[in-house]
Amino acid sequence: MKLVFGLLLGLTLLASPAFAQRDVQGLNIEGIARAIGKQGELTGEMYKVSFPRSDLSVNVGNVVIKPALALMAWAAFIKSGNNAMTYGDLVLLEGEVNPVISKLGERGLELSALHNHLLHETPRVMFIHFVGRGDEVELAKGLREALALTKSPLGATASAPETKPEIATEIERIIGYQGTMGGDVFHITVPRNDLHVASMGMMIPGSMGMNTPFNFQLDGKNAAINGDFMLRPSELKALRANGIEVASIHNHLLDNEPQLVFMHFWAYGDAVGLAKGLRAALDQTGS
Prior knowledge:
Layout: H1 2-15, H2 29-36, E1 41-43, E2 46-52, E3 59-60, E4 63-64, H3 67-70, E5 72-80, E6 83-93, H4 94-106, E7 110-115, E8 121-122, E9 125-134, H5 136-147, H6 166-175, E10 180-182, E11 185-191, E12 197-199, E13 202-204, E14 211-219, E15 222-231, E16 245-250, E17 261-270, H7 271-282
Helix pairs in contact: 2-5, 4-5, 6-7
């Protein structure tokens, strides 16, 4: 019965208007870049611009948080028919939160979540998820006006190839997925290939935040870890048994199907032990 239901659901999704985006005209990528003031990266049909908050100096105890660990703002764009959708996450100081929310609203961008990603950090940092639909360049202009109310750097970020430390190989073996270095942080992205997410009439690709990212800021044999699990509500399980703190549980979108929640986590300790804790949590999901 489950197999038949799955086949019917798959056929329904394939026949839905949302899947028509695979044959639509491309995004105005250059227009988005000009409007925001920064180039992004194209992955399949999704264009993503990232804004590391390198202007901030954030500490959790004695740990200095690197932007690539937990201070990375971003905006992604996809297109369906004549309309585009944008979805992303902004990293804000407390005093920036409400001015940015007001500006987003003025420009037709909806607030979908306001929450924290870290615990015990100084200064306090908040995160806004936003969604919008319309002309991609106008959406990008609205986002740029919101960013102008913050001190988010918009210049190009110079980067050089980074070598994975030896402990990264052990972490990859435990998690079961390969990772990469970026911003002096080790990143593993775990896909949710069992979930096909739709929102605002469009199918949202996994590369547009519909996955489970694990970030390791390595410190010898220790690591600070941060990221979030994308979960069905029935999959919410405690990470506390493995010494990992739950930082927040919330939604990222407003009208998505299926219903999903995102559980952000934080911990500092033995890198291999924390990787085992994350793997144990993954084993309780469809990942």
